[in-house]
Design goal:
Blueprint (H helix, E strand, L loop, with lengths): L3 H8 L2 H16 L2 E2 H8 L3 H14 L2 E6 L9 E5 L5 E7 L3 E8 L4 E9 L6 H16 L8 E8 L3 E2 L4 E2 L10 H9 L3 E5 H12 L8 E6 L3 E7 L2 E2 L36 H13 L5 H5 L8 H9 L3 H25 L3 E5 L7 H14 L2 H4 L3 E4 L6 H15 L2
Parallel strand pairs: 4-7, 7-10, 11-14, 14-15
Antiparallel strand pairs: 1-3, 2-3, 4-5, 5-6, 8-9, 11-12, 12-13
């Protein structure tokens, strides 16, 4: 790939920044004509024609032929050249990692799901993670020199602008992005995992034309991804979305953040798992207690599979959890008045078993005038939301304004 534009962007030249804006426009809007771009950026047609011609020569833009119109001259349709660059996304889960790579247009070229790797906040884990990413790259048959960015999803407090992760892998004074880039030999960015999932759903999931969206990530933990007017909301330091750490309960359960009473202690995969184990130990029956000699080894996916097989005890606990979660989502709806709330993360794999109690609680606890325009849906991308979002963020971070 011609690297000239990337160098121009780094130098801050006016033409290069306009080209960056054009690429960003194509990312979100697909193909368009030169007159359309001229109106969008308030530039003359000759100026846009010159820029598109240069970008075509640089390999970023393809000419997709004449646009069919009802009359008059047929303008040419231009769009991104899919082979001009590739972007890798790495989604870190509790027990596995997912790695994918998209082309310049956003098509998934290769995807490896559920690569076994149990998370540990250690240097050894980070080394193994890098080895897995390099192994994925080594097995690719495409031109590896065209890999422009790798984005990692990391849970907790992440500042994507500075490249620092404060909850995980905070081993050195240097930004984590600098450390990873050094080890992998590619440009690296990082972002919060829930924000990445929200972005994946926004770009390729159940979002149609909605611009104000809340993505509720109910996995082992709990967080929210916020999209306002079509843009990810990150907050001042990149820490927005710590929904799971709302202090709403007067309990003695210590959250992993070190505090008591967090929403996450009662409405998360961790809470579901803890409650089920406790109730089985107290003598209640489940298909899981019959199938597992050591109930402490029951996993979250075991519980989800049991729910989808209509296990009464698991469904009862999930409904209680969904009601608690829905009550707090109602507060978010009152606060943000979103068009769309997406229930995602691992527990969304239970579909209606979790969304129905959430919807009931939202109707009960949110203002009718506010919630009447809010649609609640289950994630379309399911367990792929994170890796798709990471790939999309790897691309958008190179060209976002």
């Amino acid at each position: 790939m011609n690297q000239r534009l990337m160098k121009e962007i780094e130098s801050g030249s006016k033409n290069a920044l306009t080209k960056k804006r054009i690429i960003n426009y194509y990312i979100y809007n697909g193909s368009s004509t030169i007159p359309d771009l001229s109106k969008e950026f308030d530039l003359s047609v000759p100026t846009v024609t010159k820029l598109i011609s240069e970008m075509y020569d640089e390999g970023y833009i393809n000419d997709y032929g004449k646009l069919e119109t009802s009359g008059g001259r047929h303008p040419n349709l231009y769009g991104l050249n899919p082979e001009s660059g590739y972007f890798i996304g790495v989604d870190i889960k509790r027990f596995t990692i997912n790695i994918g790579i998209i082309n310049f247009k956003g098509d998934m070229m290769e995807l490896k799901m559920d690569i076994p790797l149990e998370f540990e906040n250690t240097k050894e884990y980070l080394n193994t993670l890098c080895k897995q990413v390099l192994k994925f790259i080594d097995n690719l048959t495409l031109d590896k020199s065209k890999i422009l960015n790798i984005s990692f999803n990391i849970s907790g407090r992440v500042d994507p602008e500075s490249g620092y992760s404060f909850s995980q892998f905070n081993f050195e004074e240097r930004p984590l992005t600098e450390i990873l880039s050094e080890r992998l030999g590619y440009n690296v960015s990082i972002d919060n995992d829930t924000r990445a999932m929200a972005y994946g759903e926004y770009m390729q999931g159940c979002v149609k034309n909605e611009k104000d969206i809340l993505f509720i990530n109910v996995s082992w933990g709990l967080a929210v991804g916020i999209i306002i007017d079509g843009k990810l909301y990150k907050g001042k330091s990149g820490f927005a979305g710590e929904f799971g750490h709302f202090s709403v309960y007067d309990n003695e359960i210590i959250c992993h953040c070190g505090k008591k009473g967090c929403l996450e202690t009662e409405a998360s995969g961790m809470a579901l798992h803890r409650t089920l184990i406790s109730r089985i130990n107290n003598g209640e029956n489940s298909i899981l207690s019959m199938n597992h000699k050591d109930i402490e080894k029951i996993t979250l996916m075991d519980i989800i599979n049991a729910i989808n097989k209509e296990d009464i005890l698991c469904i009862e606990i999930l409904e209680e959890l969904g009601n608690k979660l829905g009550k707090q989502i109602a507060s978010l709806i009152n606060l943000f008045n979103p068009e769309l709330v997406i229930i995602g993360g691992t527990l969304s794999l239970t579909e209606d078993y979790i969304t129905q109690p959430i919807k009931s609680a939202v109707r009960k606890y949110s203002l009718n005038l506010v919630n009447k325009d809010t649609v609640i849906l289950t994630s379309k991308l399911k367990n792929k939301a994170g890796v798709v979002g990471a790939c999309m963020l790897a691309r958008s971070k190179m060209f976002e304004e």
